[in-house]
Amino acid sequence: MSELVNLMSGVAGVSVQARDIHGGVHLHLTVSDPFRSGAARQVELDERTADALAVALRDLDVCLTALGVPGPDLPNAVDQVTRAVLLQFQREHDPTPPNPPAVLTPALRRFARDLAAYVEPERLLTTSFYFSTRKVVAFHRAYQCHLADDRPLSPEQRFLALHRYFRSRDRLLFGPAHLLPGTQPADDAQWVFFTGDFTLVRDDGALDQVPNARQALDAGKESYHVVTAVFGARDPFFYPYVEFNGRVSTMDAVMTVSRKHLVLNSNTVTALTLALRGAPLAVAGFGTLAPADSGVQIHPIVFRAERA
Hints:
Blueprint: H1 2-8, E1 14-21, E2 24-32, E3 40-45, H2 47-57, H3 60-66, H4 74-87, H5 106-119, H6 122-126, E4 130-131, H7 133-147, H8 155-168, E5 172-174, H9 175-178, E6 191-200, H10 204-207, H11 213-218, H12 224-231, E7 241-248, E8 251-258, H13 266-276, E9 281-292, E10 295-307
Parallel strand pairs: 5-6, 8-10
Antiparallel strand pairs: 1-2, 2-3, 4-10, 6-7, 6-9, 7-8, 9-10
Helix pairs in contact: 1-2, 2-5, 3-4, 4-5, 7-8, 12-13
């Protein structure tokens, strides 16, 4: 928590106070609203959230440089992104939702949103594109003796318990700052928060088994029925795995996921339609990484995906 206080001390428009609330220390931050002159937002962070946020923000200049921010613009960009992230943790009773500072590029706005998801993984669960309950159950079984909780838990609760455990053991890597060539984790003992743009490797053989599927996609017609027929098929042997290619930091990445763990709803069907038409998707999530011939292989646990 003290690290976050130190980080905030140099950020324009942010003031910090430590408060004892219900037997625990919370940070209370006042963040100036860039869209309302003289107005401020109130943000309150518990110790766990504050420590996680400090980890993500400590190398913010490295992340922003990788996103193309020129050196002379870095100090202002660091301030703006930090405020944009903090505003996502404002108190629920604030009357109007904040907007990110207008000076932020789309890439920096997306980065601020991804950073908030690293700090609060519940944000990913509520908007997930993919969530592997099988991997969560396997991880939970392997680490159950360390979790000290014998209650029946849902897959989402198990994921959050594992996330807290990996974070407490400093085994949770914030990929945008630390994924550099040759430094990727080599085993499942470390979870990685990864981000990047990915394209779906389309299986036209599978599409040909759905009447008029390729014609509808290639002609730009309404394709909800195509997506649900392909990705919602009940036959487990039909198109069992879906492959995505992309880049994480400076490395090529391959991600193969089980079709049955893709989440189908109105948002993800839209994203899958775009992906089937060759459009890249902006992906952010947690998983493990392994070296591959020309980059890394991602074994995702949960991620969201939307139009890049």
